[in-house]
Known about the structure:
Layout: H1 2-7, H2 13-21, H3 38-63, H4 72-76, H5 117-123, E1 132-133, H6 135-144, H7 149-167, E2 179-180, H8 204-214, E3 221-222, H9 224-233, H10 240-257, E4 264-265, H11 266-273, H12 276-286
Antiparallel strand pairs: 1-2, 3-4
Helix pairs in contact: 6-7, 9-10
Amino acid sequence: MLATGLFSLAPPPAFTYLRYLFSPFLFFNRRGFVKAPYYKTQSRDTAERKNKEIAMETDERDALATEAPLAPVTSERKVRADLETSLPKPYLARALAAPDTDHPNGTPDHRHHGLSVLQQHAAFFDMDDNGIIYPWETYAGLCAIGFNIFPSLIMAVVINGALSYPTLPGWIPSPFLPIYIVNLHKAKHGSDSGTYDTEGRYMPVNFENIFSKYACTVPDKLTPGELWDMTEGNREAFDIFGWIASKMEWGILYVLARDEEGFLSKEAIRRCFDGSLFEYCAKMQMGDEGKMG
């Protein structure tokens, strides 16, 4: 009987009695092993549930993180996460308007005439409104916004020479170097700010990120050094044409629209993207326009 009691898999009678007597606190399974008390099991379940909740919160936070600890450049060039408070759907590409946080509907009183924002950028130089910009029209437009004769002549040749062929409706080059506005999106170069997408729409979030990343002196203005840093930061590998074109474009814009303190303002840049800046500068040259807000 002793051997049977010690080695049997069923619990002895005395243990069976204790099992029912102290079952709220201590009990045996069929093999005679003590199970964990109920309150300890409940505590373990609660701890596991809390750990899962903490892990989910961490995953959600990481999914929206804009900075990576092992990528210092993500901390140096910050992006804005609060745009939706002042600009509806800032990540939606705009085809007709160029909004920002201060102008959620774009430039007031600026007519788009059904053109994309990229097309509006160039439409000022289409003097006869036929959808084609020739070098002499580019020259006339540059003179109208305040550039001297010789810089205007050089820029007209360079601009039309660089942009003409990609916009042509066929494969045969034209000696007159026309730029077809309908195909202007094909002339978009790399190493830019990404404010225009590949179809010529305007990306508000990328425009706003220009200033969150590079405007270190004044929040809504850029210095010449910050413009240089921006063009360097936007460089894409082996894109020599894009590197040069980007620096030329921003340099020309700085000469045209810098303020008395030597800054290039956010408003001037935004209005350059939709072309209304050129209309403003032409009116300023004729004395018909007040100071830009």
